[in-house]
Amino acid sequence: MISLRDAALAYGDRTLWRGLDLDVAAGEFLVVLGPNGSGKTSLLKVLLGLRRLTAGTVTVNGRPPRRGSDLIGYVPQTKSVAPHTPLRARDLVRLGIDGHRWGPRRPRPETRRRVETVLRDVGAAPFADVPLDLLSGGELQRVRVAQALAADPSILLCDEPLLSLDVEHQRIVADLAGRRCREHGTAVVFVTHEAEPVLPLADRVLDFGGVRGGAEVGAA
Amino acid sequence: MSWHEVWGEIFNFEDYGALLGLVRNSLIAGAVLGLVGGLAGTFVVMRDLAFAVHGIAELSFAGAAAALLIGASVAGGSIAGALAAAALIGVLGSRARDRGSVIGVLMPFGLGLGVLFLSLYKGRSANKFGLLTGQIVAIDTPRLSWLLVTSAIVLACLAVMWRPLSFASLDPDAAAARGVPVRALSPVFMLVLGLAVAVSVQIVGALLVLALLCTPAAAAVRVTASPVLVPVLSTVFATVSVVGGILLSLGSSIPISPYVTTISFALYGVCRAAGAVRSRRGWTARRGASRPGTVAA
Lengths: 220, 297
Hints:
The complex is a heterodimer of chains A (220) and B (297). Chain A has a single domain, classed as Rossmann fold. In chain A, 28% of the residues lie in helices and 25% in strands. Chain A is built from five helices and nine strands. In chain A, the strands form two sheets. A six-stranded mixed beta sheet of chain A has the order 5-6-7-3-8-9, with helices on both faces. The longest helix of chain A is centred in the C-terminal third of the chain and has 18 residues, at 167-184. The relative contact order of chain A is 0.21. Chain B has 297 residues and is mostly helical. Chain B has 14 helices and no strands. Classes of the chains: A alpha/beta (220), B mainly alpha (297). At the A-B interface, strand 5, helix 2, helix 4 and helix 5 of A face helix 3, helix 8, helix 9 and helix 12 of B.
């Protein structure tokens, strides 16, 4: 699904990584580790088509990455939700399906059903109608994963989804990604500081922490 | 002046029927303004732009004052001022952290220019005061057409960008990944907001536009989090405030704005109280068992 060849990324004269060869197949779970500023998030931005490689090539499903592709579901790093944001859990999921479309929304029963299904899959049905700013951190993260899965992607990119969650919720959120990977053959790229909850799920680990400016890919 | 006389100044309903006929244009304008203020206000609250609205209003006032001085169209002047302010804030203050200080710099400059133009203006003083605190008698037919056309542009733009703008306001990263042009959307919305401010300045005056572009939406988000109900309620609140304000102010010699701001503030107070009750009764209530352990994850 994902293929990088001799890829490098630099900001000005600071090289984040270079010489990166990486393939992620359908149904594969890749964990990406590394300290702050080592280019983990930037790797996801490259795959999303939001950032260009400095050198080398990247393809997603055989083509160069394209912004807004339906192939990819993305869970960005968590930001707090402002108080009194006029959206509920189900509305967040729905934005993942049609939030990028222009013009007034036409009521579509199949979209509504899809939202219900995804909410149930991540165990968020009980709080589907709770305003976003009143959800707990763990509940919000489950709903954000549901948003990323709403358009039924073949690739799931998660950026530090375990941050500031308790151990129990870390396991729940990691398991959501793992189950998606097993049951739907979705390729998962999981960027995290907390390796422990995801290592049992990982097929391979990409560690940006090893050599500065280099990257190591190893089997988990 | 006795209390009775003061009361008579504020509320005077003599010859009400005859007066009502004279303000037909203003009532139409008020209803349209309620729609514009209520809908645009939803994003003012969501994107935390209340201060920007105030800043745009002061430059819109400067534009209108300049137009009054040189004998040009006041509506055109207020729109030009508002768009210039919106563009400057959009370009210089693209990041939320800088935005506050950029507005803080622009606002007194705009207000100062406005004061200068008004001091040079030798015409009727009611015209001067009206720009700051609002007026209803000034809505003649050409001005009403200006207002309707500008409002139509604002409403059309909002209808087109409503969903991507909600998405980008909530989570810019996720929205960008789904293909929403997040960076372009922000200044474009600022210009639309500029037009909305310019039409509001015509009726409620530069100092009080927030009563239309912030208070109604801020009241609505207190009582519901539904993305459909919030704009609907906000529009209803804004329309009730303007049209109600016009109807109450008819017989008196006082400008319209205190009536509008008081109704709008009262609605906010009621919504805040209702929201507090709702939260205490368990707005957060989960349906069925929601313990993490029982979820089949």
